[in-house]
Write a structure and sequence with these properties.
It comes from Sylvia atricapilla (blackcap). This protein has about 170 residues and is mainly alpha-helical. The protein has a single domain, classed as Glycosyltransferase (Alpha/alpha barrel), CATH 1.50.10. The chain is built from six helices and four strands. A two-stranded antiparallel sheet has the order 1-2. A hairpin with a 2-residue loop joins strand 3 and strand 4. The longest helix is centred in the last third of the chain and has 16 residues.
Length: about 170
């Protein structure tokens, strides 16, 4: 599925957005890309983008995927306060199972435990969990031991999602 950006002939694939189709998610993607270049947080475009993301981060209704993207964006920007607030919020929605941690789409039915069969999560769940992991590990100064312990539980779940060829169902 693709969606036209307002007033342009540019299209982007919604499936590349973890199933979330909104301006905040797209703004977070772009901000992350700018910070990974790396453009400094003092650059006017980055500064304005971060201001918009800060406003969006204060919304109570943000989707877990959006929260994970925002947490990573603020981690890259060095905004420890916003990063921590978003990670704390994500922590409340985390699924803990078999000594690992991951995130699911809200309202998803729990999967039945079938013997000898391990189902793989949808790509959006791999992506949201991977962004949460990046947010945990992207920290100045370096992540504390507690954060590294949390990251290890997240990494355990992500590695369990690999297919036999070592790849993932994720589109990213």
């Amino acid at each position: 599925e693709s969606v036209e950006l307002r007033g342009t002939n540019n299209y982007f694939c919604v499936s590349l957005q973890g199933g979330v189709n909104d301006e905040v998610t797209l703004a977070a993607y772009i901000t992350i890309a700018l910070l990974e270049i790396p453009l400094p947080v003092t650059h006017s475009v980055v500064r304005n983008a971060l201001f918009c993301l800060e406003t969006a981060a204060n919304q109570k209704e943000n989707h877990v995927y959006t929260k994970a993207l925002l947490a990573y964006a603020f981690a890259l920007a060095g905004n420890r306060e916003k990063r921590k607030a978003l990670l704390d919020s994500l922590e409340k929605e985390a699924v803990r199972k078999d000594g690992s941690v991951h995130w699911q789409r809200p309202g998803k039915e729990p999967e039945a435990d079938l013997p000898y069969q391990r189902s793989r999560a949808p790509s959006a769940e791999v992506e949201v969990t991977a962004y949460a992991l990046l947010a945990h590990l992207t920290s100045q100064p370096a992540p504390a031991q507690e954060e590294l312990s949390s990251a290890a539980l997240i990494a355990k779940w992500i590695s369990s999602q690999q297919n036999p060829n070592g790849g993932f169902s994720s589109t990213q």
